[in-house]
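The pair is quoted verbatim as follows:
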Amino acid sequence: MKKFLIIAGTTFILLSGCATKEYVKEQTDPIYQKLEKIEKQLENMNKEISSLQKEIKTVDSKVDSVQWTAKEALKKSEEAVKESQAAVMQAQDAAKKAQAAAETSKKAFELQQKK
């Protein structure tokens, strides 16, 4: 009798502690569903990151182009300033020469008037 009770008790404990396939499936299905949802979200995020990286490269390229254009415009404006400064100097020299020629003409005219 003792043997029977020990065997029956042990069998009961072992069988009650075992999980059935259906029970395990019921418990793990929600976990798998959440995991699949998270994997899809991660995949979408990776696609978005990839897209953003491409956009960043495009923007960087455009910024580089704008910087180059700005540098070229600055060089041309500096050259134009130098050329205009040279033109101002030439105009001032021409004005001085014209003034000197006018004074010389005036003196020559005055000398002719005195004769």
Summary: The CA atoms of residues 64 and 70 lie 10 Å apart. Residues 28-114 form one domain. Helices lie at 2-17, 21-114.
